[in-house]
Amino acid sequence: DVVMTQSPLSLPVTLGQPASISCRSSQGLVHSDGNTYLNWFQQRPGQSPRRLLYKVANRDSGVPDRFSGSGSGTDFTLKISRVEAADVGVYYCMQGTRWPYTFGQGTKLEIK
Amino acid sequence: EVQLVESGGVLVQPGGSLRLSCAASGFAFSNYRMHWVRQAPGRGLVGVSLINIDGTPAFYADSVKGRFTVSRDNAKNTLYLQMTSLGAEDTAVYYCARDFAGSIDSWGQGTLVTDSS
Description:
The complex is a heterodimer. Chain A is mainly beta. In chain A, 0% of the residues lie in helices and 48% in strands. In chain B, strands 2, 4, 5, 6, 9, 10 and 11 form a seven-stranded mixed β-sheet that branches. A four-stranded antiparallel β-sheet of chain B has the order 1-3-8-7, with no helix packed on it. The termini of chain B are far apart.
């Protein structure tokens, strides 16, 4: 199985400051169809996960443009340009290129 | 609007069995593969199973193989997870989720399965 490794696991951020989460895969995530199926999810406290980004950098409907995704191959990054209180929660990367889909351990974002 | 509503979670005796259900609405259920994903208390997300649109299982996590069975009733727009030989390690919130193009694009609210021990 593809192992997804996130860092940091804990991310204290001051309101209005940027935040960045890294996700590395144990194998390259380029599919034979040419797409890279790397996704990011947000899980607010007490809620279900919600997808933020798919295929590395495509934002879901309703996701603020403060959230952006980048990367290729085995290294990917989620960036929040200016952290707001509503961003508190745990962020997960997930690869959907190879069976089975696998998740990172999660990064807990909190406000300093 | 896509809706996924899980039910069936409860306190279970060690070694017991349970069936979870997920009622889907707002989309053509029969056209989508469906996942079960679980989250133990304070832990991360782990894929449990995936079922194809024709009802054949596509994946089981090693930790549940031989104990859990995924199925679906496309006429009833419902996904199921039959769980047997339950143990403390199965305590978790179980989410059903919709698969689309190398991703999971919708999640239910989850149902809690707790080991009574």
